[in-house]
Amino acid sequence: MSAAAIDVYGLVKCFGNKVAVDGVDLKMPEGQVWGFLGPNGSGKTTTIRMICGLLTADEGGGQCLGFDIRKDANLIKQATGYMTQKFSFWEDLTIRENLAFVARLYRMPRMGRKIDETLEGLGLSQRQNQLAGSLSGGWKQRLALAAVTMHSPRLLLLDEPTAGVDPQARRDFWDEIHLLSSKGLTVLVSTHYMDEAERCDAIVYLAHGKLITQGPVHDIIDKAGLFSFRLVGEGVRELTEAFRGQSGVDHAAYYGNALYISGRNRNALEQAIRDVAPDHVTAEEVKPTLEDVFIELMEQAGTDKRMHG
Amino acid sequence: MFGNASRVSAVFTKELIQMRRDRLTFAMMIMIPIVQLILFGYAINLDPKNLPTAVVAEEQTPIVRSILQGLKVSGYYDIILETDDPHKSNELFASGQAVFLVHIPSGFSERLVRGDRPQILIEADASDPAAASNAVARAETIVNRALRHHLKGPLAFLNAAPEPADVIIQSRYNPEAITQYNIVPGLLGVILTMTLVMITSVAMTREVERGTLENLLAMPAKPAEVMIGKITPYVGVGAVQVIIVLLTARYLFDVPFQGTLSTLTFGVTLFIIANLSVGFTFSTIARTQMQAIQMTFFFFLPSLLLSGFMFPFRGMPHWAQWIGEALPLTHFLRIVRGVMLKGGSLIELQMEFLALAAFILAAGTVALLRYQRTLD
Ligand SMILES: Nc1ncnc2c1ncn2[C@@H]1O[C@H](COP(=O)(O)OP(=O)(O)OP(=O)(O)O)[C@@H](O)[C@H]1O
Ligand SMILES: [Mg+2]
Fold first, then answer.
1. How far is B77 from chain A (nearest CA, A)?
2. Which of A228, B71, B88, B253 can bridge B77 by disulfide, Cβ–Cβ 3.0-4.6 Å?
3. Measured over all CA atoms, what is the biggest interatomic distance in chain A, rounded to whole angstroms?
4. Which of the given ranges, B151-160, B214-223, B353-362, has the highest pLDDT on average?
């Protein structure tokens, strides 16, 4: 394994008496694409901000690109591209003016040409004099990605870059991420989408400010020790509630014309199927999905035990 | 020390564009000086006439009559009371109903005829000093012209004397009578204080409220670079305001200009930067734009009241003078009035320039210390 792009330990961040991040260790090798997952408020954004020096960790420390996250925030900023969760470019500047601002702040050589190339790559050359605020959500995200990669950073921190973006644009966005990664960039991307998680080399799962699990998707699924059954037949949808009441069934959800149930005990699940499902319903065991695993993990993590202010 | 020029220019260009696009604010920056000048300038500076006057005449003679007639005809004085009871007239004067109090002592006419140059006392209420200035300035001429008219025939020899009567003018309530010329240069300082502090006080809070601060902080811009980049465009705005006010002062209000333009330019530049650094400091402290505006007014009011713009500086109690000394407007007023009205030079006004420079240093330091480098 090559050198670590991010190597932080014991990160803690409190807001008032609320603990937003509670002892997170993260060691991410260079050149990979990692997904950062976890329910709302689990501390993803806060962790990313500590890594790039936008927030000072209350406890813990470590390195980012070999720079100390407490002391060398400025050096980290030079070599990192951080795309914020909320679009945070200047809506009253045009697309080109936004890029020019970024280019000047990073003191890029041959600025004009770099901006032209970036606009070209974005396909926004024609609209470069349009105000950034007038772009649609998908285009804003593309503009933001282009802006944070313009200075050729070594590390990309993307905070929910595809929230509210249509499927085609999402796919294009991810193709772009893989392209960047193939050029050697390290990418940490937070997301709520399972399909995106599956496009990552590894994922990190956070809940209530704590790191719950990490690793490649299939490892996480295997490690979870979860079993799933797929039930088909007339009226299976109406059985959802009944299954949820059964012991041993941690999760029941209906989609794609089938009912999926999962739990940690295969025998208990089979018993539940015998008890609840009528004869005409057929059940087969399937490989649990990442979503099943996450819901399981969330339930294990229990209710939020962090203090509330 | 001040960081990198490219990054300063990055912030500068961005601010310039945003300023240009924010038409309303831009229009306000241009309109405020014009509107204020017209309102203040005309309300205070136009040569006010028909000022209520109380007369205490201890004798009634044709000479006294013609003096009073002369005052009336001049148009400046509106005699609302004529009495021989000083108490009555004093009451009117104290309550502000009369702006002038004219005393003609008994035996005035007799001494005039003897060629004794008797005295007439005119007391002026100078609590609104500019209001009375012209009437005061012309009082002696008016009185003596009225008398000359009278001194004919056998009394003609009295006309040979420089002035037949001695008109003594006393300002009450406000010893340092401010003339209209004091107001317009002073307004220059007031306008710059109000508009420039306000506009920069939202410089950072606007980034916070729009959520763009996170992005700004995520990029490698140093506090000093952001500060200089953000306030420099407004030095230009301030310069435009200065030109507007000076042209108006010259062509609308005929304010003289005794000193040199370079001294004034130097003073104005320091003063503009001082105000911009105060504004920027506020914007690093305030959490919202609303708070920033409130802080601006918190700064603006004492500037208006304690700098010597509204009330004569030396007439204020000592504690107020101390506060006044800490405000840039106080020093700027001395510079601008000194240069424009008295022809003051850089050397003569050096203490004021030094005070402004010290103020900039202090405000800039506070701003840089307060500048948020993180989102904590
Ligand atoms: N500046 C702040 N002040 C106070 N509390 C904060 C602040 N920023 C975050 N928090 C709290 O810290 C917790 C973690 O927030 P964070 O934004 O890191 O979560 P997240 O995982 O990014 O959530 P989401 O998926 O909704 O973006 C939340 O409970 C949030 O309310
Ligand atoms: Mg978040």
1. 58
2. B71
3. 73
4. B353-362
